[in-house]
Amino acid sequence: MDPTLPSDATIPLSTKNFATSFSATCRESKTASGWEKHKEAAPTVSHPSTSDQITERLSQISMSEASTQPSTPFTGTTPKRGKEIWVPKVGYASSASTVAVERENETNMDPSRLIELFKGPLGAGFNEDVNTFARAQVRATFYPKFENEKSDQETRTRMIEMVSQGLATLEVSLKHSGSLFMYAGHGGAYAKNSFGNKYTAVGVFVLSRMFCMAWGKEAPRMQAEFNDFLEKNRMSISMELVTAVLGDHGQRPKDDYAVVTAVTELGVGKPKFYSTPELIAFCRKWRLPTNHVWLLSTRKSTTALFVAYDALCEEGTATTVCKVLDEVADISVPGSLDHIEVQGEILEGLVARIVGRDSSIQMKDVLKEFPPPPLDGVDEDLGPSLRDLWEANRSDEKKQIKALLDAVGTSMCPTQSDWFGVGDFGASPFCNVDCLALTKFLHVHPSDYSTMKLQEMVRLIQQEGMDCHTNFHKIDALSKNGLYYKMVFHVRDDAVFCQYQEEMRMNKGLWPLYIGFFVDVNFFKVNKEKAEELIKESDSLLKDMTIASESNTSDRTGLADEDANLMVKLKFLTYKIRTFLIRNGLPILFKYGHSNYEIYYLRQMRKWGTSQKKEQELSKMLDEWAIYITGEYGHKQLPKFIYLTEAEPFLERYAKRGLENQALIGAPDSVTKDQGLVLFFPGIPGCGKSALCKEIMNTPGGLGDNRPMHSLMGDLIKGKYWPLLSDQLKKKPNTITVADKNAPNVEVWTQIEDMTQRFKVTAVPVVPDSEGTDTNPFSLDTLAVFIYRVLQRANHPGNLDASSKNPGYVLLMFYHLYDGKSRTNFDSELYERFGSLVKMPVLKPDRDPLPDAVKSILEEGISLFRLHQNKRGRREPSKGTYAREWAQWESKLRKIITGNTDYINSIQVPFEGAVSSVMEQLKKVAKGEHRTPDTEKRRFGNIIFAAVTLQVGEIVNLLEKAEADPSVKNFFNEKEMLTNPIRAHVTLAHKISHGVAAVASYGIHVHQKVPVEFTALLFSEKMAALEARVGSVNGEKVISMNDWPHATIWTAPNVPPKEANTLPQLVSEGKATRLVIDPPFTIYGVLDFY
């Protein structure tokens, strides 16, 4: 063994198994979104033991003094925190002698003598010997690449288990579609595997521009302080860089931007990565952009996340995904940049990873301590944009780089040496590096712990042809006894990461292999006496550090290494269509032809588990794309980095051919000038609907376009209103139709959805705004106002006014049609179905509380209504058991409401203001500024609804017992139900009716047995169903979100099963039969998703 090597050096792995290199190229390869790389090895992530440590740590940052405060040396212990500046709290020590010798060797040589001193490549004449040492320090890095040993499904299961047991929290973040960019201060800019090129120049420009937007006129000073802060505290930040000039990903961004994905303390040892709460605190201190993050700390929320993804994996876009995550997560921390506004609707995916169980507590404290910072420069003229400068200098890449760096200025980029060298040396042979530099690095003495560990890593992945780069930042410190390099770790083969990871499992002290890994290396020589002193100090230091490192083999959260690194990437098909199927398929299509392209895209879709329907639709679209693009370009391939130049217009044209096509590619649906519009009103009598409709119809210019307008008033229509509206839409589908009738329940909404599909119109719900209650979208204040308005009416065409016998009962009946829906659920369901929601202001926000007398009379009426409903259903209140109570209540209601006239008038928004607000919103809808996704889009995906599946045999046993009733027996015999029963289930929630989050909420009980009590049999000539009452699982009640839980057991030909929802209404109308099952019959089913 070479006597100069450390005694614990690792024997190199076979170079046949590794294809890694130190890259001298400046070529940047495609990277995935930043959070994809969050696969850190356990010891490398900072997890403070208390949330107070986060705020203490970051509250000590004094940015105004960062540029003047001397850097605190690393001593191996936590430095004292003063008021002047925060410094990294963890680091490995370097020998004091090492630092002193390095400074002695920094001779500040005149660069004009360098060419005379070095003939040929840098370091060619530098011969290592027993007195030669190396000091290596990480300059910039991103998270280690870590692959789970288990499958994605097994990883998801383990994540749920860990959260359920209180061991961890699940963190979810957005994957922005861009490339990795790292910054370490003073122009030290790095891409995934390169530096000194267009990728890093663009990164510096975007980072500088974001400083300008955040700090305004203070930006130059803050940029300089930030540079000093990173440099003196040896830190780097990593960002996901999203631009339109560095090659196409899934969608060309609307703006050029970046979000911080990692903050790293480099110290002089292993990099330490900030936890997400620390990262957000750091970024808000410096006004840097952050990502959208969600935390899930319960079994229910964690399970719901994965179910929601499975429901949205083939259709998810930014709006829908973020909305659902906000509903299922325990904590949502919006990013400082809205993905929809800066990137667009096409979302690459999500990253879910395990973090410490105290993360939620720490996050709450950080959000309280560090509110979102202001943006002082957002309205200022910042000069030419990135795209302007790029286009103006497109003839020469060096000119593009120069223009960007000059625009940034010296406060952000004090030196351009990484891009252009120094003086005359940028283009001289001096910028080349001795090819033996890497070999020399492995054979010299390590001067500190960091160097030893980096040598150990290099030995594992070394290969002939590795190279280093000249460190121009140290050009004036070069001498015959001191050389400075930049090492670039560029792992081209993912198999290397896997094999290296396997090695780490056997060698716990081995440093992880990072993604984006840059190291500053200094070779220096000393005399014999100094060498002996350094070796002695170094041996002692290395021994201590090795013991400390090997004793710390688990994450600071207390989790085992494998659990601490659990991470899963959740990508969406709408993104993969563009990148994997279109962009990555271009070389196959142009080189091997259409048939081989078809084999390629089918193989990809089947690998992803794409649903059969989606596969068929995509095949049709991709075949059209192949014919189109080869017809346009012939045998000359469309360049992949600008593929969206052709793909986006093609997809836009394809989407315009139908709603299914829009859903297929994730295109936002907007109202077009030639498309019909239906305004409808889910509300309560007295909400001002008819008065608003008149104002809409009488407004000069209508909604701001030339489409004809038509109003259909429900109180003047004899017969069924919604079928009549459907007939009118069929005749005039391009009309703006104002449906002047209350639309209070799911049955009506479903009819309206069907009209939008059949007649290609857009439906827009207009609802009275209200805070609502936990069980109703309308508050008691709002109900009181609506009752008051009804009592002020006279000669109402629908006979609901002051002369009516029971106006209070009628309004309570409408009020209870919404029973069980909170305001959030109400708004969410309408938005899920129709994609937009227009709100009519009703109450002033600064109003006085509802008087006790008004509140009491309304609560009394609600209690009476429930008694009446349970006893008599929808029968007239003037007759029967509670007739006297109703009469007394109606009289008291009139007296109390009219007695509080002044109060009720004082709390209402003036009608003119309400009309103005609604008209402004409607005009935006008419212009297409509202995104209105269609219901057909939401029918795609692998999960549609949650239900309890029942065994057919047990249903048959129940029906045989019901045959004791002659009417039932005759019905069964006529319909042959017992010989041809259908597979029954009790629907709990449907994606269309209740939303994705509602369906996902049942994930906690999936595959578990659930008792179902059947209490009645309802049947008509066209259908039959069992009325159901769902039981509990593990003591938790399973509640169906259907208004009438049931199991459909038979329908006539051409009658869809969903029509069984109308059976209770048919019973009340005498058109169906209800047979009570007493005692109830219980069957156990299994909860599952479909």
TrEMBL record:
GO BP, one annotated term: tRNA splicing, via endonucleolytic cleavage and ligation
Stretches for region Disordered: 32-53
InterPro entries assigned: tRNA_ligase_1
Biased composition (Basic and acidic residues): 32-41
Molecular functions (GO terms): RNA ligase (ATP) activity
Name the record gives this protein: tRNA ligase phosphodiesterase domain-containing protein
Species for this entry: Carex littledalei
